[in-house]
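This follows on from our talk about sequence and fold. Please put the record directly below this note.
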Amino acid sequence: MKFVVETMTHTLFPTVAAMLAPDVMSEMTGLMITAVSQQPLSSEYGRSGSRILLVTTNHGQGPSYILKRVSLEWDWLMRSTKDTLCRSVTLWQHGILDQMPPEIEHGVVACSHDGDGWAILMENVGDMIVLFDPFTEAENAFFINAMAAVHAQFWQNDVLDNPDLGLCELCDIFNMFNPRTARVELNGDNNIPRRVIEGWELSQFNLPTDVFQILQSLLDDATPFCDALAQYPHTLVHGDWRHANQACAPGVPHLYLLDWQLAVPAPPVVDLARYLITNSPLLPVSKDAVIEIYRHKLAARLGEQFSDEWWEPQLALSLLGGFLQDGWAVVLKATNWRVGARNREQWRADLVWWSEWVRAGAKWL
């Protein structure tokens, strides 16, 4: 599928106040909105520093929404991935999110400028957010099918080359949890950069020597890895496909996929790797089985465009990239991080599994 974006499909409001004005909200909802209020929310899974607010209408009697305020000033992942245009906004603004397959909903209602930053008004799907609880086989298949649908929809699509989208550069998503990046952000309010450094320091004591050496080399300079991965077919990759960015409910035929901040043109298994590494204790089948499910779904959608000639190398490289991106967290969860405490043995086993893929991916460098 090819399409060209010539004009912006959606227009940003000049301010948050303009976007949330009762008359504007009435027009957007088709309901009589007479009052709008906001209150801050916190997210256990947020890593970037963005600010989340609950928007209620008609004193709690009308529909509610989520308002996400983002700015380079307080969002360290925006800074580290050079998100100067706000990808979550540009993908909506240019109509890319409207091109999602039927399996996916994006939930964005409107966007606005917000001083030097941006604000995104979204449907309130908080009650449908996927919790950190084991997936059923049906749920896992549902998520993987939705992933394959997105990747097939934007397969080798020229629109991803549009610089006005401001999509991530490939190396940026693999450098964002790099010790060098973390050291730059140590003085901020977010504790993740400190954890990144701690996790990578611990990795030399918790990984086989050869695996640590491969990773250390790529943490010093990921260019050889990014150049190798960039040779293979690309699609629109969400970049952070984990449980907390998914929302669904029984009887709802589509998946809400939230937070497109790390969107990048990349080979498809970059998303699958993120799914496997962050959701590991939740998977109802082995990671190898999930890979096979995804391969089958993607191959069925791509038809003759699918080939083992590119599938095998991008699989190995993307899984190496998954650990290059998030290995620090797996090490911490396998050792001392409270986030992984109840699944400590799973995370320890994961270190073995991912180590094998680091070795396999390194053969393609």
